[in-house]
Design goal:
The chain has 141 residues and is mainly alpha-helical. The chain has five helices and no strands.
């Protein structure tokens, strides 16, 4: 069964760091008295020393750099997803040799779908496909 991660308030962390600084006890002893890991208390002391008042901002209060980093990571993930989708579309459309684009003109001397009266939509596409591949349908002789 996974261990549930405990969360501590800013006040608790500050008080624990104050105890380390003011009492003569070791970090290990204070951590044991508070019921936390000594590595956790050591990390809190390090953060307090490095960041001062900015330490322990809470989950909703991020520094400007952390907020910018979070936004950039989100944007990067979006761009990667878009790139991957375009890669898939590109490989799918350029890997098919039996598809013909309806927007290209027919080769000289090859009748196009425009030459066949009453053909449009899917029928027009099928005529273009048949013309491009050079195959005839089984019912045509």
């Amino acid at each position: 069964m996974p261990k549930e991660q405990r969360t501590f308030t800013k006040e608790f962390k500050l008080e624990a760091v104050r105890l380390v600084q003011s009492s003569g006890k070791s970090i290990t002893q204070i951590a044991r008295d508070l019921g936390i890991a000594d590595s956790t208390l050591h990390q809190w002391c390090k953060l307090q020393a490095e960041q001062g008042e900015q330490a322990f901002p809470g989950s909703g209060h991020q520094t400007a750099q952390e907020e910018e980093l979070r936004c950039l990571k989100r944007e990067l993930e979006t761009v990667r997803q878009e790139r991957d989708m375009l890669k898939k579309v590109f490989t799918c459309t350029h890997g098919m040799s039996d598809e013909v684009s309806l927007y290209r003109s027919a080769s000289p001397g090859v009748p196009s779908a425009k030459d066949v009266p009453g053909v449009g939509g899917l029928g027009q596409w099928l005529v273009c496909l048949e013309t491009a591949t050079g195959e005839r349908s089984p019912d045509r002789r």
